[in-house]
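Q: What would this chain look like folded?
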Amino acid sequence: APIVSVRLVVSDGTALTGTVYVNGGRIADFPPGGPCPTVEPATLPPLPWEVEARSPSGRILTSMRVNKPR
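A: My prediction, written as structure tokens:
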């Protein structure tokens, strides 16, 4: 089976600091107007991922599921 590399890239186009969660665990905070950081998969749990970006109040701004490749 081929080796698949999956990275998580974050872009915050809001005026608020965003927080990224993967499978319910806090991964990192990303300031507004900052560079688009990449979260390396070695720092994340195994796939599948439930990814959420949350506002400082905890409101979910966006979410997605990342599945294992077939």
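DSSP finds no helices and six strands in the chain.
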